[in-house]
Amino acid sequence: MKQWFAMAALAAVVVGAQAQTFPGSKPVTIVVPFAAGGPTDRVARDLAEAMRKFVPGGNFVVENSAGAGGTIGANKVAKAAPDGHTLLLFHIGMAATPALYRKISYKPLEDFEFLGMVNDVPMTLIGKPQLPANTYRDFENYIRANAGNLNIAHAGLGSASHICGLLWQSNLQSKEAMTTIPFGGTAPAMTALIGGQVDVMCDQTTNTTQQIESGRVKAFAVTTAKPLSNHPVLKHYPSLQEMGLKGFNLTIWHGLYAPKGTPAAITKTLNDALKKALKDPEFVKKNEGLGALVVNDKRVEPEEHKKFVAAEMIKIKAAVDAAGKYAD
């Protein structure tokens, strides 16, 4: 018994020492699995700036490691040393990639320590300006009347717009699916929509609000459970759930992760810093400017974060299986 207490005491000392010395002189790198300048990159840079305030001596930097729908950057972090100095900021793709790719070199629920959710970004369902419909109900009727003759754009496999389009079509249950038109990013997809080369797209408010406000695209609905009544532009549009797609509630959330095996003392330090960053007025203001909602619920806790991602994986897999669209 004495030996057990001695070992427990030693373990406590080691954990305490790890917490006190982290991060030391080495910077904490937040890996973004997408190109610089996009919505996830902006969230990461704002988060790095906020978390720096709450980790004594901490220097947080952002590194972009793009490609293969985010899987290259995610794999890099999964294989990194579990010392808290390499983190991953990933969006809903963390839950989607196992369904979209037949083979990935990491397991999202097993190869990471979940540190907490960061924010939710609502989505909007938009159409080309030439569409005759002006309301969601008219739009839905138009889709059914033109089954098989319409197409839907997205910004690439595993992108927010791709996932949103899959889930929406799965819930819509129209007689014939739209033709999917992939692009190499949000900008070319939006350009094609504005120009009338594609019919429909579903994408983040960070990318759509300005186009809706200027009248360059038509908006029909938001993907949140309830209408965005406080949003200056999108408050005029219904939610898909309100329009009859029961249970439809999709936001492009972001979460923070560390490699599996990162010591508990370090993950606690990072989670504590994350929680404080999410309450930082400057960080909240920046998120509001992006149309994002900072998480202030139980998903900031690692275990709840993990449960949420696991549930999202089930939901997305069902939609992907129904569509039958994968990548090798």
Secondary structure: elements and pairs:
Blueprint: H1 2-21, E1 28-32, H2 39-52, E2 60-64, H3 71-78, E3 86-90, H4 93-100, E4 112-127, H5 136-145, E5 151-154, H6 160-172, E6 179-182, H7 186-194, E7 200-204, H8 205-213, E8 218-222, E9 251-259, H9 264-278, H10 281-289, E10 293-294, H11 302-323
Parallel strand pairs: 1-2, 1-3, 5-6, 5-7
Antiparallel strand pairs: 3-9, 4-7, 4-8, 4-9, 4-10
CATH architecture heading of the largest domain: 3-Layer(aba) Sandwich
Q: What's the number of structural domains? A: 2
As residue ranges, the low-confidence spans are 4-17
What's the CATH superfamily of the largest domain, by name? Bordetella uptake gene, domain 1
| Number of distinct beta strands | 10
Radius of gyration from CA coordinates: 21 Å
> What is the helix fraction of residues, given as a range?
40-55%
Main beta sheet strand tally, sense and closure: 10 strands, mixed
Q: What gap, in angstroms, lies between the N and C termini?
A: 54 Å
Mean pLDDT: 89
Secondary structural class: alpha/beta
Order of helices and strands: HEHEHEHEHEHEHEHEEHHEH
In the CATH scheme, the class of the largest domain would be Alpha Beta
CATH fold label of the largest domain: D-Maltodextrin-Binding Protein, domain 2
Assign an overall shape: globular
Query: What percentage of the residues does DSSP assign to strands (E)?
Result: 15-25%
Contiguous helical run count? 11
- Quaternary structure: single chain
